[in-house]
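pasting for ref
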Amino acid sequence: MSRLAAGVVLVTAQEPPLDPDDPDAPGVEDVGMTATAFMSVSLDPPLVMVSLRAGSRMDDLLDEQPLWAVSVLTESQRHIAGRFAMKGRISDRLLFADVPRVRGEATGAPLVDGALATLECRTEQRVTAGDHTLVIGRVLTARAPSTQGGPLLYFRGRYRQLG
């Protein structure tokens, strides 16, 4: 499967504060994860699907939180993809610290500025598939804010550019 080129997206959502007793903690925490197994499922109704490793932080969060978002990354956003794909990474709060973003109007989830496209979704169905969970979401909003640059691709274990 490493020979199948895939687009790269950042899946985001919000979770309750990690320390609700801390008065200085934000009201919600942003969570993000790089994904390459993302696809359109249906146009009517508009549905998309992302595959998450079972038991991962994002899988657990989307089991509780039905609202999430996707930013389709451009070739110039490789650093964002790499940052949110790291194993044993630092806190999401630090990962998001210098990523230009806006809040989705339907989900509140972060949407990356300059992404090729952004979508906000509500989970419609979760399907267990081996060691992954397929999360099918209804698209609530879809925008193509950037026309600059090409897509970021993942092929043979590396990020690539088109062409």
